[in-house]
Amino acid sequence: MKVVCLDAATLAGTDLSALKQFGTIDIYETTFSGETLERIKTADIVITNKVVITEHMMASCKHLKLICVAATGMNNIDLEAAMEHNITVKNVAGYSTDSVVQHTFSMLLYLMGSSCYYDRYVKEAQWCKSPIFTHLDRPFGEIRGKKWGIVGLGAIGQGVARVAEAFGAEVCYYSTSHQNHNDNYPSVGLSVLLETCDIISIHAPLNANTKGLIAQSELLQLKEGAFLLNLGRGGIVDEAALARIIDVKDINVGLDVLESEPMREDHPLLHVKNSDALYITPHIAWTSIQARERLVDAIVHNIQTFING
Questions:
Q1: Could you confirm whether 283 is annotated as catalytic?
Q2: Looking at 103, 203, 218, 283, which residue is catalytic?
Q3: Among this protein's residues, is 261 annotated catalytic?
Q4: At what angle do helices 155-166 and 97-112 cross, to 10 degrees?
Q5: Which is the catalytic residue, given 103, 203, 218, 233?
Q6: Which of 22, 72, 143, 291 could join 96 via S-S bond, C-beta 3.0 to 4.6 A?
Q7: CA-based radius of gyration for the chain
């Protein structure tokens, strides 16, 4: 079989040699839209993370039997067209849960502990001038006793809930589908969650129920001093509204995802004045070494199970 990997750069540093057992393999670090069809037109199996594969491409690929999505979300694949052309599409779920949970707390602790300020204070040699051994200009609190609201209580949300409880937080959640129920934690409405929680973390997919879920009115509902973390999908939080509100309201925000990735050079969040209250990472929550290794192992497993029928 011919295997084509379209965006191996998203798996950087991960051993892909196990794919060779299936036949010849073409590995491309990145693939732009105008290059996709030419690269996959003779492939039996295509591996893609974010490269879009359309109905037109599928119709032109006479050998294509399997599309392996190197992610959980499959919105870059025309699934109806795949069914029409008898092409199997397989994704990978659960590989990054621990990595995203860990990054959630990394973001929170960075913001809550004023790490940016204290790191700068020391490296600019301000500590050298201190008359005492410590520095208390930026007081910070503890997670214990805080109310933590989770938007999207799937596997990642539940993982965050367990760790939050270990820190001593009181956990509640909001179901974006209004269909999921968890007896371990109280379910609340979105307004209640926004108005009462000290910490809010988002672990939901982007869909009709979540697009623009946290817009200007919702941001204004947040408690003073609240922490808002989005590790779900860009587009759930209104970034333009956030850029305005974070400079006038006492909130702290961590984002690992944006609506358009990579970040635009003219993005309004690059120009906020209260930059210490904003922590942005470039969609890395899922990318621990172990998570990427699990992802590749799962792709290999998906191909094996497909071949074995």
A1: yes
A2: 283
A3: yes
A4: 50
A5: 233
A6: 291
A7: 22
Render pLDDT for 123-159 as a digit per residue (tens, 0 to 9): 999 999 999 999 999 999 999 999 999 999 999 999 9
Q: What's at 35, amino acid-wise?
A: E
The Cα–Cα gap between 241 and 187 comes to 27
Nearest by Cα to 291 from 80, 7, 11: 11
Give the C-alpha separation, 235 to 238, whole Å: 6
Active site annotation includes 292: no
The domain over range 2-93+289-307 is classified in CATH as 3.40.50.720: yes
Q: What distance in Å separates the CA atoms of residue 95 and residue 5, rounded to the nearest whole number? A: 19
Regarding pTM above 0.70, the answer is: yes
Same fold across 2-93+289-307 and 97-280: yes
How many C-beta neighbours within 10 Å does residue 97 have? 21
Of 162, 261, 264, 271, which residue is the catalytic one? 261
Residues 193, 200 contacting (CB under 8 angstroms): yes
Q: Which of 254, 245, 272, 285 minimizes the C-alpha distance to 115?
A: 254
